[in-house]
Structures
1.
Amino acid sequence: MKTLILHPSDRSTDFLSIIYANLRNKTVIKGGITKSELNRLIESHDRILMLGHGAPFGLLNSGQFPGAGLFIVDGSMATVLKNKSNCMYIWCYADKFVEENGLIGLCTGMFISEASEAGYYGFKNIGADLIEQSNKGFAEIISKYLDEPIEIVYQKLLNEYGLLVRPNSIARFNHQRLHLIC
């Protein structure tokens, strides 16, 4: 299976690289291509992983993709993504993007991965260790099961990441916002 990983360069999302670090037969794109080049890459790969910061409208460009505008993945990509059944959309509010565009795949809602996001959502005195534990646990679990069907990845993620819920309030928040949209 050929996997395309779209992970715009951004130090604050480097922890997500754990997900695909040991994956074989992958193409990793961190920047430097146009939306039309990305469309062609999506068409030629079996599985697409899109990781980083985002909003309900798509995956943020983060200034890495010339001429792409604010989002490198947006509604203009929906047609090509609809032909893919094994996608992961891992960014804040990716679930809204997936639903709005009639797509399927594993996706996240709002996902706290930084102290500023935790503060915005009312978490007080959260140590960096809780956020790091949540981030690392999330990425490592997906990595372990990445070669399984998407439904299995989702189930294993719910079960194993769920073990962090009791001792880690950030993981609890994120766990409640994991979705498999079919």
Note: The longest strand covers residues 47-51.
2.
Amino acid sequence: MNASSGLRLPPGTPEALEMVNISKAFDGKPALEDARFTLRWGEVHAIVGENGAGKSTLMNIAAGIYAPDAGEQRVNGEAFAPKSPADASQFGIGMVHQHFRLVETFTVAENALLNLGSQARSIRQAADQLRHKAEEVGLQIDPAKIVSELSTAERQRVEILKVLLLGARILILDEPTAVLTEKESTALLDFTRRLARSGLAVTLITHKLKEVAEFSDRLTVMRHGRTVLASAPMAEVKEAEIGSLMVGEAVAQVHRPKANPGEMRLALKALRFPGQKTQQGLDLNLRAGEVLGLAGVGGNGQEELVACLSGAQNPISGTIDITGEAATALSPRRRRELGLRIIPADRFAGGLVREMTIADNISMTEIAQRAQNRGLMLDRRRMNARAVDAIARFDIRGAAPNRRTELLSGGNAQKVLLARELDENMKILIAHSPSRGLDVRAGAFVREAIARAVEQGAACLLISEDLQEIMALSHRVAVINNGLIAGERSAGEVTPEWIGGLLSGHA
């Protein structure tokens, strides 16, 4: 393990945060049972576990978002029972969530002003405070920039600065690197370690064991709502032990689906969309029974390509054929009728409605069909039955038809999306980073579900920055750079040197 032992503190220094025998249930289903956690000043402390293990729920309790059903909390030795995030903030606790909470049409300063309340009376004051805090902690941000124009890494900096401006000394980061490149992830984790060494306390919720090993001082492992390893020094933990503690058993290896190319399902010719930097268009063909992996560094047109394929955005020029039918001008609904299914990169921004129930989310794309209706009324009994079946088939843990989707872990929310999209009428699946932010077991489940669908005749365009994910499933691999296909090979001919050269813009 490469992590150091943290900041040396005088004897008798109280713990930054103590959580003892914490229990919490949702809709009668236990999410936490006698969980415990101890965070020290001056350290980066990782919490790991499967999706649904209770990591985020435990930290949401510390952040005042949920109230525990039982248990005790202390901050710096003082009893602590927050009734809201504002209460937790008064004790110096700030949480940066996996899904950012920013108003995209506002500037950075305007978002900060919303958060600061009475601590800033004008946008100018908020901007000044942002600049001062950013300079103090070593982050770069432009307060005048519109949030929608920021990169993912920049948005995350804004979220961190927001909680630091409120005086956070205990910083909780929920899956902070899930949507960052490797370079951005390293920069962020270096920053969090510097914060800890300055005297703050940092909790890192992550699935990436390499990050745990390299950047954390201590480790807590959770499984099924319980703490199975509490506050262990990283120097005393072997990486192989972490995975077994997380899952309690071995995770099955995902198999690449058998190659059986059939009829043409998706054909793109000279497709041009916003974000491309040349007049040349993108060409791509995809057949039934195969996976085409589209590798590339984020920001090279992947989001725009998915938007054009789904019908959410019109291309500048070029053509899209779906199952032999000209689809360039077709509506999203008609494309779905042709068998096109989408798994977006952000499951909540583009796939699920977090405030709706699981039954509603699973049935929302089929509401117009008579099977879901009774005249003008929804057939709730049929919708609930469909949800019960999906929960069983996709092993959606902690789920019930009438439970709000936002109460699920990331991996289980992704399974809800899969249950809806991988239906019997699917012919083409566009899967954008389908296992992003998921733990080992949940990621394996998602990949295995895709593999089974392809073996049953579906065509899959797998878009991912994770080369291991690409190589695990793909029969052919193409590299996207600046919105164009820079090269393509069969999976057996792919080498790291070939991919690396194309990613960097060299043939």
Note: The first helix runs from residue 55 to 62.
3.
Amino acid sequence: MSVVPPVSLSVRPEFLVATKEIRNKIGLEVHALKNVQLNDARVHIQSPSKDEDLANPGTIQLQLAKNQARTYEVDGPAFPASGPLNYYVKSNSADYGQNMIAIRHDHIPSIIYFKPVQVPLASMQLATYGKRIGYIIGAGDKVPQALEQMGYDVTLLTDKELSRNSLTQFDAIMTGVRAYNTNEWMNNHYDKLMKYVSDGGNLIVQYNTSNNIGPVRAKISPYNFTIARQTRITDENAPVTLLKSDHAVLNFPNKITQEDFRGWVQERSIYHAAGWDSTKFETVISMQDPGEKPDAGGLIIARHGKGVFVYTGLVFFRELPAGVPGAYRLLANIIALNRKKSF
């Protein structure tokens, strides 16, 4: 038997973006662990760094039977704000701000623990260009949620959607991490994707691996390059050199500076491009781990017909959920590449 509070809280999405133009909403789910009736409950959003309430949406009615749940839509904080944010349900009698996690397996004793309901917040100056993005699901990441937080309309694309739908509706198409490793059907859509690019689209391929466990079985690019097995930047503070400061990817719609590479988490990039055709591809940034040679394969860009093809090993799948503003700003610029002539 475990002693538990009356309610457990959880939130969706698991991170927030706040800009001058965007004030995203969050869904706060209240799950009753016991019968609960609170007529004076209030939702509070608190900044631990400032120890102040950022929002108080007013009173909510909590009348739930045990195991019932209800989701309340709550405005996120207005720009500018500081994070991470803690979410609470407060009443005159008690405060609740914990999420109950239960681990139950036949081979081990049941474990129940609680953690604060805390949401990373990226508060930033962010401009975007374009609206509709098609996202080809790979091994699984939270980039689609981040794109929606940025204000894009995101459509998840599987084998069937790619076969049936016109791609011209999308301002950009982005592949999830390891999409070409995990989806054998990607090769079936090579010609259609290349036509999309040639007709003016923007295909952004996030990293894929090159090894015996999950080799790339499909063609990726209109031009030749390989994926390096070892080349990556493991130091999140590794120096970054801007090779072409006038390139659109560093200027439109956001001006990218060294400040945008501060605060990255865990690493900068993995599985760089290698052996690319320098007559077709451009490189715009170079990075290096301590004691290693500079490498520019973390982001390569090529024009194909009227559109753009991009391969990137930059770890957006880590930086966006962690709320790193520079990663959001750089990704917005990559998405905008086919809307402003860059080279």
Note: Residues 325-335 form the longest helix (11 residues).
4.
Amino acid sequence: MSTPLGYPHPMTPAVPYPVLPRLSRSANHGVLWFAAAAALASTRTPRARRAATRGLASLGVASLTVNALGKRTLRHARPAPVPLIGRLKRRPTTTSFPSGQAAAAAAFVTGVALESPTWGTVVAPAAASVALSRGHSGARLPSDVLTGAALGVGAAFAVRGMVPTRGQVAPPARPRAEVPALPDGEGLVLVANTAAGSAERARALRDALPGAEVVECEPGDVPAELEKAAARARVLGVCGGDGTVNAAARVALRFRLPLAVLPGGTLNHFAYDLGIEDVRDLARALREGDAVRVDVGRYSCGGKHGVFLNTCSVGVYPELVRERERWSHRIGGWPAGVLAALRVLRADRHPLEAEFQGRTRPLWLLFAGNGTYHRMGLASGRRKDLADGQLDVRVVHGGRRPAVRLLAAALAGPLTRSPAHAAVQVGRLRLDHVAPGTLLAYDGEVIEVEGLVTLEKLPEALTVYRTIRSD
């Protein structure tokens, strides 16, 4: 097979592959990769969803780089057409160098693999075939394809630099705790909140650990079932959202039991920061007896007190949580969150007046995290160490435009000072002269407080199973 000048086409194989032109066409405009991302997301596993998102983000950066910069700067003519058996039905009209299809394929598969090597291996054959199809069709020279693939790989790593993978931040490794290893799960009693959609995961854990006992119950029965479970368990387990996990932590602290957390809610920050994402992770930790001691946050106000594993806050955020709960059962969690934010920020309101660090000042928000939240690149904050003894306190100062100030504080991230916000790490704080009826949110739950509110740490108070993923 040769060009009209008599020379062999550089990337035309001796044996034709009829499937390659069809595969090449399917990748036009990213259709193939959007379909692959949808298939990954449909597995409903956090790691697969993140891999799909990262693959598409990498594809977007690669496409922008190749089409907006490469093709406009380096105008290389396309090679002469190959015979009809390998030729595309519609020959591309853009310049040849570099190959946008190869860049997109390499970017997508590299992005997926950086988040999940397993899923990257699954997607890799399709990506390699698309790159090969560009040379087989006569649309590209080898240098076009190889350069495009290199740009795609670079785009995926650039995305990782801006938004690190979860594997780049290791789960907390200290201080380790002595806990019973449960090879078949015997001694574990796990309470699953069915309203959080966690029943299926709880049953999967029972299949993985047949000796475990699983109790499924409605939200109103969770506290009582946790008490009963703790009375007969060697290890107390819980599957549900942040509020359910908080309730289980309180019981585990009182009964001095190790806690096994299976994420079953919408966000699952605590479980994810431990390195527990699915049934496989928790089952491995229970079989191997792998656990750590973590800090617990505690709030006190008058006769009220409680604990928090993730965050505690006053100001506009508790109002947002209450508004979100009002709508979530009707339209779903994420739409309800967006609607709640719009309603809260558009409402005519005044900032909270309270005494903080010896000064009375207006505050739109005071946020206290149980452990220091670190931001890498543009990624949202994540805790590297759940036993650092610190409350991560972020304050958004009062002002005329709450939405602008809250957005500026969110973009500032770990910066300690700005006109809009301040950030400090302390072991204990006092918020005084809080007006009656002020809302306080902790791990997704909301209560009313007034007067003096105290937040403090209980160092290494809770023992929790965890594992380090090896995907």
Note: Residues 188-294 form a domain with the Rossmann fold fold (CATH 3.40.50.10330).
